[in-house]
Hints:
This protein has helices at 2-10, 24-40, 44-58; strands at residues 61-62, 67-68, 73-75, 81-82, 87-88, 93-95, 99-101, 113-114, 119-120, 125-127, 131-132, 137-138, 141-142, 151-152. By secondary structure, the chain is α/β, with parallel strands linked by helices. The longest helix has 17 residues, at 24-40.
Amino acid sequence: xxxxxxxxxxxxxxxxxxxxxxxxxxxxxxxxxxxxxxxxxxxxxxxxxxxxxxxxxxxxxxxxxxxxxxxxxxxxxxxxxxxxxxxxxxxxxxxxxxxxxxxxxxxxxxxxxxxxxxxxxxxxxxxxxxxxxxxxxxxxxxxxxxxxxxxxxxx
Length: 155
């Protein structure tokens, strides 16, 4: 229900609540919840299988180990990649082509942490164990810590 309200709030093209079931973001996040259930219980193969099938159907790749907050809205989600140790806060909006990825073969926390009320524009690549603070609006590439309420465009 929360995901339906999030999509309704963010997408003016939505004409009815039933259309939500056609949104790749809705499908990917619903299946992520199932995969996460298995992942947290140590059933890694099942969880990865669910998300692999989801990636092929929606074009959105969310690792079941990632932590997603409430109100995540992925608009035109094709090409979105969210890595295993990524953490996403509440009320985050991201567009197609966004990558929250690692930079190599590090162990432990190796993906970004995104705060609350963050906007990540299409094609953004946020790599490594960095933190994006609350209320940040982001467009391209972030490779260092970004402070609260800062508009950042470029490298």
